[in-house]
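User: Working on a comparison across species. This one is DUF4283 domain-containing protein from Cephalotus follicularis. Can you predict its structure so I can line it up against the others?
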Amino acid sequence: MGKKITFRSLQSVLNKKWSVASKFSIHTAENGIFIFKCESEVVKNWILDNGPWDVWGVHLALRLWERDLPPIRSGFTKIPVWVRLMNIPMEYWKSRGLSHLASVLGTPFHMDPTTKAKQMISFARICVEMTADRAFPDVIKTKRRNGDIMEVRVEYSWKP
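Assistant: Here's the predicted structure for DUF4283 domain-containing protein from Cephalotus follicularis:
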């Protein structure tokens, strides 16, 4: 997202960043779109779970390929964005509760491993597919069990 990056630059940087993940290949399409092929589901999940990824200040908007979606598109109307939800009421600290909060922003894709394991509950980090041309809210209002309205703060890894 943003300025274009050359294939060789992308390949060079990601080979270093993703060397832990094992084997993957990069294929270029038109309009600044790259297709990544992973040798296994484990590699794919490692790449998705350890983002967001930037190469020389260019944010990589990664999404899973869908069977009927042609790889070449002129632009993105929906983009995956890593969000950080803070000040989450304890009753929402379940996969279903966190997904419910994130769905206010868009379609939740997945949580980072720390959030999924509930190792650190000061914030939750979730990848959400958001509509690119809509406002990115800084707050999600939610109702607690006792009826109180609470504000969950939202931070974005980047905004288009």
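For your comparison, note: The first helix runs from residue 7 to 17.

User: Helpful, thanks.
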